[in-house]
Amino acid sequence: MRTLTAIIAIAFLVLSSGLKAHAQTGGYREVLRFEPDAESGMFYSVSFSPDGKLLAVSTSWPHSIQIRDAMTGQILKTLIEKSQAFSAPKSIPSWSPNGRYIAEVSGEEGSALFDDYGVVYIWEVSTGSHMTIPNRNDRTAHFRDDLGNIGSHHLAWHPNGNTLLLMDNDLNLRLVDFPSGKTRWLIDPYVNQPVDFTNVDPSVPCRPQWNPKGSRFVCLGAGIQAVFDGATGQHLLDLEDEYGQDAYSEWTRDGKYILTVDVGDGGNTYEIKVWDAETGRKANLPKRAGLPFSVSPDGTKIAYIDNPTNEVFIAALKSDEILARISIDHDADEFELSWSPDGNCLAALDRNVTAHIYCKNDKPF
Asked: What is the pTM of this model?
């Protein structure tokens, strides 16, 4: 009888432990894990393709972009430009909206100056071939190489995939056609900014992000906190409140909100700030802190790294409800969390640069 009672007690403890773990993870479970192999460099980003079938895994030293099967993690293709293998990438690889291309800004091998170089590479995923977007040339510009070429720093695909926004190292923004590379317009977003922003740190220029319709874009960072017209580059409105020099922004897929987490010169709170995209006023949504973060495709959830614990928190965007806590020793230097297009799965890297895919349902994709 005692043996039976002991067995029942143990079974109850196991069941309770399982239910508690399930409640903490919110039903999310790890469906895939993979690490760098002996030949590839260390992972520094992972992101789902627009159809959710592939993963782009960026490596460093040597630098490459691995195209992997999202179900199995198998490497299908490696995108690499030998002259850039030991360069310092300046941006996370970005899928084109149709999933045919991947764009990134690459540094120069052996370059001593971070801000005098930056070439936009665009890879065709199916063939592995690539092209570059020509740099601007101005021998009078402050940030230029010996030939007068002005490198780029950030990029953003237009939602229709036919143009890209490029933030160049001289703090000018340009809209270029793809694939021709022809410039449609060029603006200086720092013109007429408050005096407090005139001495900006040029190493962290603002990062452009489109709204879902492609009619507007926001640029946040190094003193800029403004929304611009996508067709002309005209300044439309400023976002209220202040934040630090560097910012990591996102425009929600429903077009209603703009979010950022600011990183200043010290004493960072990593507060995730949210604005009403139409008015530029702070939105009345729950306060959270974490870096990095990512809003789910349907706009209902936000995933972020809780910096004190380095765990992944998944919360309701518009309420205080924490939906899941996933134990992963995340490295704050890895600025990337990626949702699958259906919002069912989340990709993240841990401190040991192992890639993890967590999914809510039994059928991951």
From this structure: 0.86
- The number of angstroms, rounded, from the C-alpha of 166 to the middle of its chain's C-alpha atoms is 16
User: How far apart (Å, rounded) are the C-alpha atoms in residues 31 and 41?
Assistant: 23
| Backbone dihedral angles phi then psi of residue 79, each to the nearest 5 degrees | -95, 120
pLDDT the model gives residue 132: 93
What Å distances lie between residue 315 and 56, 289, 293, 300, 321, CA to CA? 25, 12, 11, 9, 6
Amino acid at 307: N
What is the DSSP code (8-state) at residue 352? T
Q: Give tens-digit pLDDT for 90-146.
A: 678 999 999 999 999 986 554 444 445 688 999 999 999 999 999 998 877 777 777
229: pLDDT strictly greater than 70: yes
Following DSSP, what letter does each residue of 230-293 receive, concatenated? Answer: TTT--EEEE-SS---SEEEEEE-TTSSEEEEEEE-SSS---EEEEEETTT-PBP----EE-SSE
CB-based contact 304:348 (threshold 8 Å): no
Domains and CATH numbers, the chain: 81-188 (2.120.10.30)
Give 363's pLDDT tier (boundaries 50, 70, 90).
low
In contact, 174 and 123? CB cutoff 8 Å? no
Q: What is the H or E stretch that residue 302 is in?
A: strand 301-306
Torsion angles phi and psi, residue 174, rounded to 5: -135, 145
Q: How many CB atoms are located within 10 Å of the residue 62 CB?
A: 15
- Residues 313 and 270: their CA atoms lie apart, in Å, by 14
For residues 91-120, one letter each, b for 16 or more C-beta atoms within 10 angstroms of the residue's C-beta and e for the rest, the string is bbbbbbeebebbbbbbbbeeeeebbbbbbb
What per-residue confidence (pLDDT) applies to 364?
A: 57
Q: 356 and 350 in contact (C-beta within 8 Å)? A: yes
> Please, are residues 217 and 165 in contact by the beta-carbon 8 Å criterion?
yes
For every residue of 31-70, DSSP letters joined together read EEEE---SSS-EEEEEEE-TTSSEEEEEEETTTEEEEEET
